[in-house]
C-alpha cells in the first residue's frame, strides 16, 4: 500500500509538471487560434474583433496567469471548451477514446498471436530453420515504418484485391488493416525480446531442477520458463503500450479512423489548444497508470521480488 501511495503522489506531481510544460510550449508555438476561428470561412474580420475575442479567451493575460486559471478548472475536472466545436474537451475525448482503445486492443491481440508462438518456437528450436525465419521477420518488421506497411496493406488488400475497406470504422472489417499494421510492427520487437528472454530462462537453475524432478517438458516450459521470461517482456510492454496508443495517431490519419489520434491531429492543425492539452494529459495519465500496473505485476510474475520486499520490510 505504501508503494501505491507513493506512486499516486508521483503521478500527481508528474501531471502538474507535464501540464505546465505542455501549456507553455503551446502558447509559444507559432499560429493564432483566434485568427483561425474568425477566418475559418475565409471571411475578413477586423482587428477590433480579433482583440475582442482574444480578450474573451484570456489570451492577453501572462502565460502564468492563463495556466493558473486553467489549473483551477482542471482541479474541477474541467478541461475547457474546444475552440472549434464549442464542445467540452472531456466530452470530445470520451467520444473518440473507445474507438482508439478498440484499435489498440485488437493490435495487441494480433501482436500476441504472432510474437508468443513465433518467439517461443524460435527459442525452442535455436539455430534451426524456424529460428532463422523468425529472426528475419523480426529484422524486417523492425526496419519497416508502420505507415509504409499500412500503405502496402491498403494497396494490396483494398485497392488491388478489394477485400477490405481502407477508411472509416463502420464495421469490424474496418479494424483489420489498421490493427494488422500496428500489430505486426509491435510483434517484430517482441519476437526478438521473447526469444532472448526464453533462452536465458531455459538455462536457469530452476529449469534444470525441474527437469531433474521429472516434470514434463510442457509443464516446465509453460509454467516455469515462460512465466519467468515474461518479466522483461512486460517491462517493455508497459513502455510500448503508451507508444502504441500514441502511434495510433499516424495510423488513424492514414486509415481515416475516427479515434482520439485523428482528433488531436485535427486540433493541432486548427490550433485548438484545449483539445491538445487534454490529449497530452490523458496520454500522460495513461502511461503513468500502465507503469504502476506493470510494477504491481512483477510481484505476481517473479516471486523473488516478493521475497526481497518481504525481507526489506
UniProtKB/TrEMBL annotation:
Residues spanning the membrane: 101-124, 136-159, 171-191, 229-255, 275-298
GO molecular function: nickel cation transmembrane transporter activity
Record membrane topology: Multi-pass membrane protein
Keyword annotations: Cell membrane, Ion transport, Membrane, Nickel, Nickel transport, Transmembrane, Transmembrane helix, Transport
One Pfam family this sequence matches: BPD_transp_1_N
Gene3D superfamilies: MetI-like
Record-linked CDD domains: TM_PBP2
Signal peptide as annotated in the record: none
InterPro entries, per database record: BPD_transp_1_N, MetI-like, MetI-like_sf, Opp2B
Annotated localization: Cell membrane
Claim: Membrane is one of the keywords in the record: yes
Domain ABC transmembrane type-1: 97-298
Primary localisation category: membrane
Gene Ontology CC terms, in alphabetical order: plasma membrane
Family that this chain belongs to: Belongs to the binding-protein-dependent transport system permease family. OppBC subfamily.
UniProt subunit comment: The complex is composed of two ATP-binding proteins (NikD and NikE), two transmembrane proteins (NikB and NikC) and a solute-binding protein (NikA).
Protein name: Nickel import system permease protein NikB
Amino acid at each position: 500500500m505504501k508503494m501505491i501511495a507513493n506512486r499516486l503522489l508521483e503521478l500527481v506531481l508528474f501531471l502538474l509538471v507535464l501540464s505546465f510544460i505542455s501549456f507553455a510550449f503551446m502558447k509559444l508555438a507559432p499560429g493564432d487560434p483566434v485568427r483561425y476561428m474568425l477566418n475559418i470561412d475565409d471571411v475578413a474580420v477586423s482587428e477590433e474583433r480579433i482583440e475582442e475575442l482574444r480578450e474573451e479567451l484570456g489570451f492577453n493575460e501572462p502565460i502564468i496567469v492563463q495556466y493558473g486559471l486553467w489549473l483551477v478548472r482542471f482541479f474541477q475536472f474541467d478541461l475547457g471548451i474546444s475552440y472549434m466545436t464549442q464542445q467540452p474537451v472531456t466530452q470530445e475525448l470520451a467520444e473518440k477514446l473507445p474507438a482508439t482503445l478498440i484499435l489498440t486492443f485488437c493490435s495487441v491481440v494480433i501482436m500476441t498471436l504472432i510474437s508468443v508462438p513465433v518467439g517461443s518456437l524460435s527459442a525452442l528450436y535455436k539455430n534451426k530453420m524456424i529460428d532463422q525465419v523468425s529472426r528475419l521477420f523480426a529484422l524486417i518488421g523492425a526496419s519497416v515504418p508502420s505507415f509504409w506497411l499500412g500503405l502496402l496493406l491498403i494497396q494490396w488488400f483494398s485497392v488491388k484485391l478489394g477485400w477490405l475497406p481502407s477508411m472509416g470504422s463502420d464495421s469490424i472489417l474496418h479494424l483489420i488493416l489498421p490493427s494488422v499494421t500496428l500489430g505486426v510492427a509491435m510483434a517484430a520487437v517482441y519476437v526478438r525480446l521473447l526469444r532472448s528472454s526464453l533462452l536465458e530462462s531455459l538455462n536457469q537453475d530452476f529449469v534444470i531442477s525441474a527437469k531433474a524432478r521429472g516434470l514434463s517438458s510442457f509443464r516446465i516450459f509453460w509454467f516455469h520458463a515462460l512465466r519467468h521470461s515474461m518479466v522483461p517482456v512486460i517491462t517493455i510492454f508497459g513502455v510500448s503500450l503508451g507508444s502504441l496508443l500514441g502511434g495510433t495517431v499516424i495510423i488513424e490519419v492514414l486509415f481515416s479512423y475516427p479515434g482520439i489520434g485523428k482528433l488531436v491531429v485535427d486540433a493541432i492543425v486548427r490550433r485548438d489548444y484545449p483539445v491538445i492539452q487534454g490529449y497530452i494529459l490523458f496520454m500522460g495519465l495513461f502511461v503513468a497508470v500502465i507503469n504502476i500496473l506493470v510494477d504491481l505485476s512483477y510481484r505476481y510474475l517473479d516471486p523473488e521480488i516478493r521475497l526481497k520486499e518481504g525481507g526489506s520490510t
